[in-house]
Amino acid sequence: MKSIKRVEKVTSHLSDFGQWYTDICLKAELIAYSDVKGFIIYLPYGYALWENIQKYLNYEFQKTGHQNVYFPLVFSEKLFQKEKDHIQGFSPEAAMITSTGQKELFEKLVIRPTSEVLFSQYYAKIISSYRDLPKLYNQFCNVVRWEKATKPFLRGKEFLWQEGHTVHATEKEALDQTLFAIQLYEKLGKELLALPFVCGRKTEKEKFAGALITYSIEALMQDGQALQAGTSHYLGTNFAQSFQIQFQDQDHQNKYVHQTSWGVSTRLIGALIMVHSDDEGLILPPYIAPIQIVIIPLQPKNELVQAEAKKIFDDLKTTYRVHLDLQNKTPGWKFSQYELKGVPLRIEIGARDLAQGEVTIFQRYNNSKNNFSKNTFKAEIPKLLKTIHDKMYQKAQKHLEANRRQASTYQEFKDHLQKKGYVAMSISGMDAEIKIKTETGATARVILETPLITPNCPVTDKKAIQTVLFAKSY
Amino acid sequence: MKSIKRVEKVTSHLSDFGQWYTDICLKAELIAYSDVKGFIIYLPYGYALWENIQKYLNYEFQKTGHQNVYFPLVFSEKLFQKEKDHIQGFSPEAAMITSTGQKELFEKLVIRPTSEVLFSQYYAKIISSYRDLPKLYNQFCNVVRWEKATKPFLRGKEFLWQEGHTVHATEKEALDQTLFAIQLYEKLGKELLALPFVCGRKTEKEKFAGALITYSIEALMQDGQALQAGTSHYLGTNFAQSFQIQFQDQDHQNKYVHQTSWGVSTRLIGALIMVHSDDEGLILPPYIAPIQIVIIPLQPKNELVQAEAKKIFDDLKTTYRVHLDLQNKTPGWKFSQYELKGVPLRIEIGARDLAQGEVTIFQRYNNSKNNFSKNTFKAEIPKLLKTIHDKMYQKAQKHLEANRRQASTYQEFKDHLQKKGYVAMSISGMDAEIKIKTETGATARVILETPLITPNCPVTDKKAIQTVLFAKSY
């Protein structure tokens, strides 16, 4: 007797967005849970998404002269304590190695939650002249932060990321680098992930522990909650002063270096899922999809059909990530399976279509089917993929714009917040920000570079100093 | 005043092999030390070597259907204890997370020294039928082992590696997979690293904790010491029984799966250095070299020379990893610098050569210089690189063969061992192996599939059961 497995259905996103999300993560086989809470297993299909992000960034880094390195997983507690804001921000969630199977360690070791202190210590050793600058290092690695509430990809005790750490002779150069990184992330969103972001500066309250300026890209999920998807920090000379990273400049003066750090993580995969997918499962934009095209013979035992399917597979496989499914399962099962997995294009090869010189192509992003001539469809594929990518980006962009409001009164702010999405308001500063967070649960996402909406802050009635985009967020 | 830095010289390998090795690691800027002993920083030039090994293996894995995944950094102590031999082998050197910045953990967590238990636990959850088999997973990651004596690349508390973990329905299939992996490593050595290995089974004493069979590739360093450079394990049903990984076979019987695991690490980079380099520094085989060709204009301010150098650079950069050095430093300094860094080919562009329509090409592996027509040299480069690679492999192979001896008496064994390198002897088993290790410091590297040299073991005088290749090793 055959064990027949049905393709598993996902929960409706309208009935339970959180369950819908974890259903997709698990049922599309992106991840599995391990036995330690907050640590997930990246399965082949999920890990391939991260590999494609890495490839995209590595390609860009090669053009800009950023070099990959690998710094240690651990550092001493002493090192951690050198920059005060930084340790205050990260210490509570840092994991410690205190012993081995055999004995206690003399000194506790911190597992990196981020690596500013390691890079700073190294830079202090090797930088002495303006000729040693800039240094443009990046590493892909795992980091550990002991988060309480965890959710696959979005927040884990361990996650995978890329962290850039650069050192410059001047403030201007470091500020340019900070902007370079956040613009690179915007480009990554636009070109690979089909994700539009709101990009801007973080408020004093929300900026990175140890930074002077933090820029962030923020994505808006389908449930109207925001997600911080990447950050870029101008560290000024904070770490340089704590670690004594000095250089002799061309004018013979000893000066502190200016530093930046910036990162995106596997969290981007969470955004990808939450922005694009539907109740049938995952919907992947074509350029990041591990399988871009799946070929399904409708009568797999029909020799003509099988031969044609193989021919098309061989034709396409040099250009695209393509999969030919010859499993002994029904076409219906296979359709559901690859819809669940969000494969952008499905080519159905059927005897009837072939008799008419045609194939059927299904597009996952709008669940549409069209017939194409089997002799000419190949030339259409680049256009199809491009259109799918563009439409997915535009749809997400439209959702973002439709859920971006502004408020002139605190009541209006609260009313807008009920509708989910972003609300802009001009505020007096951190006091207003804290009050808003306590009373509404919304946090400052980014500062907008736009004129004030109201001269006074609707929350404190003090003079407004900046317009800030608020939202509830993951 | 300019600060003039000399290219740093390395210690002679004949006077102090250990110092020569670490000099190259540090001065060729492959690594730097961190402040925690045993944890090293992989600098761009060193990390690029590992990236090229990863690319090679990923390309091969794609052909064979091995899929990349990422499993957690940690697991529970309970999980660790499930396979008895395994925990006995790895427990003493396992690092533990016991607390965070805020509080003690309820349960100690083990940082992976290797991930058999994590994969086994996952496989137990997802495998139920022969249709679920095989699973061919691989991960690139960091692992932690609390080694006492550490040496860059060769032995560290943290290292980077690739670990394959596969599951099969039959013993035969798993044994084939075990051999597939070790043969892949031999191919990697032959095609990318120009490293010949002795390949064979480990003795019972030396095999992996938890395995039935371990195959190993062993490289021979220039000082005559062996280095285990990669291993592949047939785990039998050991882990399957401990973790209850069972499947219903086509004959409806429930059976335990057969597993394999196999890995190579950044240790390969240590072998690369110790086998190929000389007293001028690193010598890199061309296909793994991060910079394959460096172009040095001898009169960088001469416009003709500069234009020609740039033209050649543009010509070559689409095909090779090529670097044009326009720094304001003397050609002599640059020559030493790239010799220290082991760049396989140096193209010198000089006014006098150009007047005769020529360029000079320096080959690092034999420190030879030849003139080539500047119009035709480009076509010679693939041949040059291939020849360099082949000659480097042959030289290492010759060294290996010249240092491989056999012994019919224990005294002969000891005499041969004085000359360094490998000594084969037919032994009675583990008792002889232990005696040899205690008395001579040599360990069993691999079992040879050759006829017995002597009917009795020269050490114990008992009946010999196998011929084993011994050596002192790293």
Structural notes for this entry:
2 copies of one chain form a homodimer. With 474 residues, the first copy, chain A, is of the alpha+beta class. In chain A, a hairpin with a 5-residue loop joins strand 10 and strand 11. The first copy, chain A, is built from 14 helices and 23 strands. Helices cover 35% and strands 27% of the residues of chain A. Chain A has 3 domains: 220 residues, BirA Bifunctional Protein, domain 2 (2-Layer Sandwich), CATH 3.30.930; 92 residues, Anticodon-binding domain (Rossmann fold); 69 residues, 2-Layer Sandwich (Translation Initiation Factor IF3), CATH 3.30.110. Strand 5 of chain A pairs antiparallel with strand 5 of chain B, so a sheet runs across the interface.
Keywords:
EC 6.1.1.15 (chains A, B); aa-tRNA-synt_IIb (chains A, B); alpha+beta; aa-tRNA-synth_II/BPL/LPL (chains A, B); homodimer; BirA Bifunctional Protein, domain 2; cytoplasm (chains A, B); 474 residues; Rossmann fold
